[in-house]
Amino acid sequence: MSTYLEIFKLTKVYSTPKGPATIVKDFDLRIKKGEFISLIGHSGCGKSTVLSMVAGLNDITSGGIILAGKELTGPGPDRGIVFQSPCLLPWLTAFENVMLGVDQVFYTANKDERRQIAEYYLSVVGLADAMHKKPAQLSQGMRQRVGIARAFALSPRMLLLDEPFGMLDSLTRMELQQVLIELWRKDKKTAMMVTHDVDEALFLSDRIVMMTNGPEAEVGDILEVTFPRPRERKAVLEHPDYYRLREHLITFLEEHAHKGQRPVRHSSLPVIKHNSSSDQPLSTGPNNQKADRISEAAVIKN
Ligand SMILES: Nc1ncnc2c1ncn2[C@@H]1O[C@H](COP(=O)(O)OP(=O)(O)OP(=O)(O)O)[C@@H](O)[C@H]1O
């Protein structure tokens, strides 16, 4: 299949009080139409920086991004974004929040058609009975469902997700991963997701892009995830390749935890087993204590 999104030599230099900081340098990636890609890497390496440049919300210093043959120069409705928090207008209902975008994108459709689009996606994410409630009347997980419905309802070419489940408890997180994977399967959207969660990346992705640590972060490695689709969590966890792939990711992350940082007390590293399907999700971010234990024991930050 041909390339749908091409990121070439993408570089971002931020101005800081200490001078220019090159956070991402020469980041190259090609994504096929309908592919689900996750970006994983240590906190602060530049994952959100890359995603926000693809979203058109962050200026590119050099390099470029081409989506469906067109160079991206700013934000647009061809990219649907799901953030960690969905940023809903509090005085509007879930339905009205989704309709805001639908009215703009499908302005040629009649009102009834537009209403049907919003209702369809809100129902698919499990909010059929709650779509006329305001954000304050919804749980955090329900609000995130609205955010997912809104992104899909706009029928974007590409879906960009920045730690979409990072604020949720693990049960809600798993439920919403399931909602996302089902919607993605139905709509076949090309997707790029930033995550700290190794298990989430393995469950959802076709490929996992591992970023090196910044400054000057780039693509360090890419893991193909070939579990059959449609995916069901239990089958994925029991797949004979699951722990080999998980180990590959963790080894990359552990190796990069040491790079540019001062290793200490290697002899006191905790022994962490990855061979049980009852393991909690392992993440590289602040939401997972196990990952924190790895990085705390392995490195001290300069
Ligand atoms: N506007 C900005 N100005 C200066 N530095 C910035 C700016 N935005 C981000 N940075 C820096 O760029 C680096 C990468 O940030 P970014 O948020 O992209 O990382 P990340 O990998 O997504 O982190 P996390 O996983 O913790 O969300 C960090 O050191 C951050 O402090």
TrEMBL record:
<keyword id="KW-0813">Transport</keyword>
<keyword id="KW-0067">ATP-binding</keyword>
<dbReference type="InterPro" id="IPR003439">
    <property type="entry name" value="ABC_transporter-like_ATP-bd"/>
</dbReference>
<dbReference type="GO" id="GO:0016887">
    <property type="term" value="F:ATP hydrolysis activity"/>
</dbReference>
<dbReference type="InterPro" id="IPR027417">
    <property type="entry name" value="P-loop_NTPase"/>
</dbReference>
<dbReference type="Pfam" id="PF00005">
    <property type="entry name" value="ABC_tran"/>
</dbReference>
<dbReference type="InterPro" id="IPR017871">
    <property type="entry name" value="ABC_transporter-like_CS"/>
</dbReference>
<keyword id="KW-0472">Membrane</keyword>
<keyword id="KW-1003">Cell membrane</keyword>
<dbReference type="GO" id="GO:0015112">
    <property type="term" value="F:nitrate transmembrane transporter activity"/>
</dbReference>
<protein>
    <submittedName>
        <fullName>Nitrate ABC transporter, ATPase subunits C and D</fullName>
    </submittedName>
</protein>
<feature type="domain" description="ABC transporter">
    <location>
        <begin position="8"/>
        <end position="238"/>
    </location>
</feature>
<dbReference type="InterPro" id="IPR003593">
    <property type="entry name" value="AAA+_ATPase"/>
</dbReference>
<dbReference type="InterPro" id="IPR050166">
    <property type="entry name" value="ABC_transporter_ATP-bind"/>
</dbReference>
<feature type="region of interest" description="Disordered">
    <location>
        <begin position="271"/>
        <end position="291"/>
    </location>
</feature>
<dbReference type="InterPro" id="IPR005890">
    <property type="entry name" value="NO3_transporter_ATP-bd-like"/>
</dbReference>
<keyword id="KW-0547">Nucleotide-binding</keyword>
<feature type="compositionally biased region" description="Polar residues">
    <location>
        <begin position="274"/>
        <end position="289"/>
    </location>
</feature>
<dbReference type="GO" id="GO:0005524">
    <property type="term" value="F:ATP binding"/>
</dbReference>
<dbReference type="GO" id="GO:0005886">
    <property type="term" value="C:plasma membrane"/>
</dbReference>
